[in-house]
UniProtKB/TrEMBL annotation:
Residues 3-71 form the HTH gntR-type domain. In the C-terminal section; belongs to the class-I pyridoxal-phosphate-dependent aminotransferase family. One of its GO terms (molecular function) is DNA-binding transcription factor activity. PROSITE patterns: HTH_GNTR. Transmembrane segments: none annotated. It comes from Chryseobacterium piperi. The keyword Transcription regulation applies. The keyword Transcription regulation applies. CDD domains: AAT_like, WHTH_GntR. PANTHER family: HTH-TYPE TRANSCRIPTIONAL REGULATORY PROTEIN GABR, TRANSCRIPTIONAL REGULATORY PROTEIN. InterPro entries: Aminotransferase_I/II_large, HTH_trans_reg/aminotransferase, PyrdxlP-dep_Trfase, PyrdxlP-dep_Trfase_major, PyrdxlP-dep_Trfase_small, Tscrpt_reg_HTH_GntR, WH-like_DNA-bd_sf, WH_DNA-bd_sf. This is GntR family transcriptional regulator. Keywords: DNA-binding, Pyridoxal phosphate, Transcription, Transcription regulation. Pfam families: Aminotran_1_2, GntR.
Length: 474
């Protein structure tokens, strides 16, 4: 079983709570004190405390610190029967999604909230030119239904592209969808019924949580941390103790943390899923946006069982208005195809033909090479601004690719005053609290770097950072 650095202090706290040395409600050492005593990094201590919160031993009171949970019965029952304690019965995701879906108004000082390529980064000229060519060449044939699972040519192109990074997709088993979220919906609906329990990463992007809520599923959140990535040991434990119907993961450049799962963890996760026969629903929407040398692998690369259902779309790499995604549903193809049909027969032919053109002529690859470089430069510039201007005790994850930086502000800071300031000064971030069903991410926020960096948006980060400093009590 994997061990984590933070266990040196979490095991001591857990032990002291169990033997009564630490009583319910008593204050626990601060992050700083633990860091000093055990010579751990801030993020290790934070991860350790998050782990104890998830297990039910510890409670986090924003702006006050960590305390032994007042209802320890819950934690102890969670040890023997976690089903009651860890499953989120709440099937309606009622967080303030309004905050995220508000369209950016012109003249925002800093729009760091929309996970989509901005107008400046969308290859507008290329897309519009190719669309015109498609209309000229395909003419009235674009007005017919295309096959339910999509154009065969497009499926072959997607499959042959995936083969280049070791991901064996069978073009006969691919289904073209209206974007990635529809692919997720189909994948989940193929293997679950309302009331079933599934596992998801925590934090998790709210759009995925919305789909889960819509399907009336219960969830168990599997923590992911900066240092360890996906907690496979915790996943194994959850699988052992619950009837999990599926796992939803974004292994490559997870939104919001930007974490890239190592191949080792991907394989470990797959072996747990195989052992318990749990379908893995793998979201690879950010896989092409890597900052390293190589395109990362998918969990699907290592699967021969058909238990892995991989999906993606071109919303993040080309433009979100091109509603074109795909799903490789493995052994659940028959259910998935039926669902695709019921959701509207076929994806708009014009988008399918557009993608065929972009893939066939290699324009997609050429665009990606430039796009990845731009994103990486923006991630570096924004990462530097954040660490320069935000107060000590803040922490920002370093993304390995994708679009987002996950930030944490000091617990003592009045987070609502911070958001109020940002809102009134039109500096837009996404509040951490909407990335989970509980309130464990109240001091986190997501910063998107999909807009071209300029003096105006760096200045807005400076203003937000200075405000955060001022909001810290002396
Ligand atoms: C992880 C993730 N999956 C899916 C989506 C939605 O993708 P699409 O627009 O292709 O439905 C998003 C972005 O909104 C996302 O961040």
């Amino acid at each position: 079983m994997q061990t984590y650095r933070y266990e040196v202090f979490t095991s001591v706290i857990e032990h002291k709570i169990k033997n009564g040395t630490l009583l319910p409600g008593s204050r626990l050492p601060s992050i700083r004190e633990i860091k000093k005593e055990y010579r751990l990094s801030m993020s290790s201590v934070q991860s350790g405390y998050e782990y104890l919160v998830i297990k039910g031993w510890v409670k986090n009171i924003p702006r006050s610190g960590y305390f032994v949970a007042s209802d320890l019965k819950k934690a102890t029952t969670a040890q023997s029967s976690p089903q009651k304690q860890q499953i989120k019965e709440e099937t309606t995701f009622s967080k303030n999604v309004k905050l995220t879906s508000v369209r950016n108004r012109p003249n925002e000082y800093g729009s760091f909230n929309a996970a989509t390529p901005t107008d400046l980064l969308i290859p507008q000229k290329l897309i519009l030119k190719k669309m015109q060519e498609v209309i000229r060449e395909k003419a009235a044939s674009l007005l017919r239904y295309y096959p339910v699972n999509g154009s065969l040519k497009l499926r072959e192109l997607i499959a042959s592209r995936a083969r280049q990074y070791g991901c064996a997709l069978n073009s006969e088993e691919l289904i073209i969808t209206d974007g990635a979220l529809q692919a997720l919906y189909i994948a989940l609906a193929s293997v679950t019924r309302p009331g079933d329990t599934i596992a998801v990463e925590s934090p998790c992007v709210f759009s995925i949580l919305e789909v889960i809520a819509n399907l009336q599923l219960k969830t168990i959140e599997i923590p992911i941390h900066e240092e360890i990535g996906f907690d496979t040991a915790y996943f194994r434990k959850i699988c052992n103790e619950n009837d999990i119907k599926a796992l939803v993961v974004t292994p490559n450049f997870h939104n919001p943390t930007g974490i890239l799962m190592t191949d080792e963890i991907k394989k470990e996760l797959l072996s747990v899923a195989l052992m318990y026969e749990i379908p893995i629903i793998e979201n690879d929407i950010y896989g092409d946006l890597y900052f390293g040398e190589e395109r990362p692998s998918c969990i699907r690369n290592f699967d021969e069982s058909g238990l892995v259902m991989t999906f993606s779309s071109f919303s993040k790499t080309l433009a979100p208005g091109i509603r074109l995604g795909w799903l490789h549903p493995g052994k659940y193809y028959v259910e998935a195809e039926k669902l695709r049909f019921s959701l509207g027969r076929s994806v708009a032919p014009i988008y399918q033909e557009l993608l065929i053109k972009l893939l066939e002529e290699n324009s997609y690859e050429k665009h990606l090479r430039v796009f990845r470089k731009q994103l990486q430069e923006q991630a570096t510039a924004i990462g530097e601004a954040l660490s320069n201007y935000f107060p000590d005790g803040s922490h920002f994850y370093k993304p390995a690719g994708g679009y987002s930086i996950w930030g944490r502000l000091p617990e003592r800071l009045d987070i609502y005053a911070f958001y109020h300031y940002c809102e009134t000064h039109r500096i837009l971030f996404t509040p951490g609290e909407i990335f989970g069903f509980g309130n464990q991410f109240s001091h986190y926020f997501r910063i998107i770097f999909a807009d071209r960096i300029n003096t105006k948006n760096v200045l807005s980060l400076q203003k937000a950072g200075e405000k955060a400093r001022k909001l810290l009590p002396e």
